[in-house]
């Protein structure tokens, strides 16, 4: 998907539960350097590794994906709006005035794992799983649009003469 659509920006609501997890999982399970695959620079032909795409070991910093802007929407929302808790569902309710369902991670994992193993896994569960992922993806962009985050950040970068990535 990344190679076909070639996005300039990657947006995650909670970096530790999404992109960090995928990067670490790809490395541990498949010995795949997902950071290199996601970057816009070509992969090295020999066995040397490039250290330009990297992720902090402690998980405090955003992963550096060469050629793409990576945004952690949870961190941005903490500086933009005041909430008691910064869950995706709570942010959607307070910013867009919409209630969205919250499914426990264990239930989502069960739906994902049971899809191929359990004969009782129904189409309804699969559609709910896809709908939940789609709702989160579209919800991220709707939150960004409603708060005008891209325009504000671009304007700050233009005024202060710094890169988009370094504004926040």
Given as residue ranges, the uncertain stretches (5+ residues, pLDDT < 50) are none
Give the amount of beta strand, in percent. Answer: under 5%
How many helix segments? 8
Determine the structural class based on helices, strands and strand pairing. mainly alpha
Distance between the termini: 27 Å
**Main beta sheet:** 2 strands, parallel
Describe the structure.
One of its GO terms (molecular function) is DNA-directed DNA polymerase activity. One of its GO terms (cellular component) is nucleus. The protein has helices at residues 2-5, 19-30, 34-38, 73-80, 88-96, 105-117, 123-146, 149-160, and strands at residues 9-12, 69-72. It starts with a helix and ends in an 8-residue tail after the last helix. It folds into two domains: 1-81, no CATH class; 86-146. Helix 5 (88-96) packs across helix 7 (123-146). The chain has 168 residues and is mainly alpha-helical. Strands 1-2 form a two-stranded parallel ribbon.
């Amino acid at each position: 998907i990344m190679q076909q659509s070639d996005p300039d920006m990657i947006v995650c609501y909670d970096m530790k539960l999404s992109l960090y997890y995928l990067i670490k999982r790809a490395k541990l399970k498949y010995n795949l350097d997902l950071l290199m695959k996601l970057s816009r620079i070509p992969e090295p032909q020999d066995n040397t590794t490039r250290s330009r795409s990297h992720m902090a070991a402690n998980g405090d910093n955003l992963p550096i994906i060469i050629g793409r802007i990576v945004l952690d929407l949870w961190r941005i929302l903490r500086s933009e709006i005041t909430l008691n808790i910064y869950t995706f569902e709570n942010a959607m309710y307070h910013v867009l005035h919409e209630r969205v369902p919250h499914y426990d991670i264990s239930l989502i994992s069960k739906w994902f794992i049971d899809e191929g193993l359990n004969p009782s896994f129904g189409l309804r569960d699969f559609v709910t799983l896809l709908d939940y992922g789609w709702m989160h993806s579209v919800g991220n962009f709707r939150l960004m649009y409603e708060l005008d985050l891209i325009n504000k950040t671009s304007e700050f970068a233009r005024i202060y003469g710094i890169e988009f990535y370094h504004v926040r």
